[in-house]
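In this supplementary section we document a worked example of the pipeline. Step one takes a protein sequence of length 268 as its only input; no multiple sequence alignment statistics are reported here. Step two produces a three-dimensional model, which step three serialises into structure tokens for compact storage. The input and output of this example are shown verbatim.
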Amino acid sequence: MKPILKYIIISFFALLVIGYFVFILGHFSGRSKDEVCKELVIEFLDSTSVKLITESDIAVLLDKNDLNPIGKTIKHIRTESIEDILRKNELIKSVECYSTPSGIVHIRIMQRHPKFRVVGFGSYYIDTDRKRMPVSENFGAYVPVVSGRVTVSYATGEMFDFITYLEDNPFWNAQIEQIYVRDDKKIELVPRVGDAIIILGTLDNYAAKLEKLRKLYVKGFSLIGWNRYKSIDLEYKDQVVCDKAPFDEDEPVLKTEEKKDTIIVHKI
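The serialised model returned by step three reads:
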């Protein structure tokens, strides 16, 4: 067989194969576009079990905007519009929507993650990206609470850094439950254990102040108990000033043998 004739035969069969695949793809593609959506699958990609927005919330939102895909043909489902409307929800960080040839529409959602809650001039969360986000009507996230005179700029700046420090330190992450910002910008901490209010003062040198308190907890309160004082003031250099709660006058006064981190106790 001459080379030119062999080349023509091979090219002819190659064109037949390509044409066949084009026909098959076009045929099944056309069929898939006419497929009716019979199922909507909503998947949350978060590792946390907390759902600030629910599947029902998403379904209602799609219904209000005439974007519910159930019962519509695939070619009439606007997946990009679904993504756009869901991205406008302040509880959602990212969203992906796509359909399958079998008539199933998938929505994959990543929620925003609240880091702490602010209660004062409004009630809202600050998320892990330093942005304000609304409180969910469905669930409350178990996060630290910051109250008092708190502005958004303060919450997303100094307070965010302070709470990050507490979270990164296992001891303080387990100890501090609430944070109160006074009108003079000084900080009071409410611990999970004991009744004493911790007066941190300003956020300057907070790591050193908390280290003084940790020594007091380890060397003092672990021996005599957690409920002898109504306040613990960390504002003074090399000292922890404690105001005693109204217990028995014969109770011993707590002292330390170290020159630094002196504990001054005032009876009331």
